[in-house]
Write a structure and sequence with these properties.
about 170 residues; Thiol Ester Dehydrase, Chain A
Length: about 170
Amino acid sequence: MMQARDAAPGQGPMPDGMPERAFRAMRTVTVEQLSALVPHANNVQIVGWIDEAARAHGDSSGLTRERMHREGRMWFVARHEIDYLAESFAGDQILVGTWLAGVTKTTAMRATKVWRRHDGAAAWELAVDALSRWVHMDLGTRRPSRIPAADLRVYGWTDGEAHPCAPARHP
């Protein structure tokens, strides 16, 4: 389970490209997370890290999936775009950062980046760059519903902030 944690003292600076409001979690890649034939992190695991980071960000903000379920609402993924930029191997330390990158009345674009440090390297290397569209759903009607302004604020989104929803990056 992913839990919020900043880089430990003495482990170097945080990587570029992560805003202050980002939720951050560190973990180590395990042998169980590797592909069967090629010993690197399995893409299914990486998608799991993206979902787990979103869940942990909600949990740390008080918007747990259990609470949202009790309130008759939930976030559903509509789209993931994932750029795999570098392999991650067993024993690599990874840092997952996620934050809201844009919103509409009923959707949120969530940026997620995964950086890795291999063999004790001092610098972080960007391994995964993902953008996911999440739809705020009413569980009773199974239709999109307006995102409460209070929810956006707990994620660090301000009322005066522009509300861009980035278009797909791939042709």
